[in-house]
Write a structure and sequence with these properties.
The chain is about 45% helix and about 15% strand. With about 270 residues, the chain is of the alpha/beta class. The protein has a 6-stranded mixed β-sheet with strand order 1-2-3-4-6-5, with helices on both faces.
């Protein structure tokens, strides 16, 4: 993409676009505090850290990239995501995000009781829960008693399609605005205006988009290379299967596939 194409994309962005939302709130503690105060119906948030597009990897090489990661003055942490489709807002993805964040919250020697409260907040373009409410708060409860479990894990879905004259309704209106002058909250509008209407803001946004495109191209190349290596292992395994002298376990060992993968290949040969 050349600069003119990037500029056209920036003009069409709203806060429901994750890349743009991340850029608007990145490093802006006060504006993220405003966002959390509205969503959680409070007025006392003091945010001390905001990081956009934070990546986490697990031991199985599965990664997540958080739109916004924030920490408040009491040590609680927040992951704020915008999702435009049902797949991105899958309830098990919320669980996964929560678990990945938890693994980074304790240092060696710390007690489990010191694990900070965490909030995974999905702002969705449509009502993915489907009950017609503006917001859904999910906490674990003891099934037999109905009492709050109190493990400090919180998941929140914000219905982006809900608009009224409440603070949250006005915020969801702002999330769908392409123009800063149409927004209710001046603090957020100023951030949007900076990125969309100033040379520095637009250039910074272009750089973010370029970096994301490069990262996506690199990840696609790595996936393609991994698949090519796996195809080669499958071919080697098929050769050994056709020779018929080795057990499935031996073929798995020599080819680098799992025993189940070898069995599936063998079944395909005899089908």
């Amino acid at each position: 993409m050349d600069r003119s194409e990037y500029y056209k994309a920036i003009d069409e962005f709203c806060l429901m676009d994750d890349t743009f939302m991340s850029a608007v709130f990145d490093g802006d503690n006060k504006t993220v505090a405003l966002l959390l105060n509205i969503i959680l119906n409070r007025s006392d948030f003091e945010v001390i850290e905001v990081i956009a597009q934070r990546s986490y990897n697990n031991l199985l090489d599965r990664s997540i990239r958080l739109d916004i990661f924030a920490k408040d003055s009491s040590g609680k942490v927040y992951n704020i995501e915008v999702q435009r489709n049902y797949e991105g807002a899958d309830i098990r993805r919320a669980r996964y995000n929560s678990s990945m964040i938890d693994t980074r919250l304790l240092s060696r020697g710390q007690k489990f009781s010191e694990l900070a409260d965490s909030y995974v907040i999905f702002i969705t373009e449509s009502d993915v829960i489907g009950a017609g409410l503006p917001l859904y708060e999910i906490d674990r409860v003891v099934k037999q008693t109905g009492t709050y479990f109190g493990d400090g894990s919180h998941i929140i879905y914000v219905n982006g399609s809900y608009e009224d004259d409440s603070a949250l309704g006005k915020l969801m209106h702002d999330f769908k605005c392409r123009n800063a002058e149409d927004m209710n909250y001046t603090q957020i509008a100023d951030r949007v205006r900076y990125i969309k209407e100033t040379e520095g803001g637009r250039e910074n946004m272009c750089k973010i988009m370029e970096d994301l495109n490069k990262r996506a191209a690199k990840e696609a190349a790595e996936i393609a290379a991994k698949e090519a290596r796996k195809d080669e292992r499958r071919k080697n395994a098929l050769t050994m299967i056709r020779i018929g002298r080795l057990s499935f376990e031996e073929i798995a060992l020599y080819s680098g596939l799992t025993v189940d993968e070898v069995k599936t290949l063998a079944e395909g040969e005899t089908a």
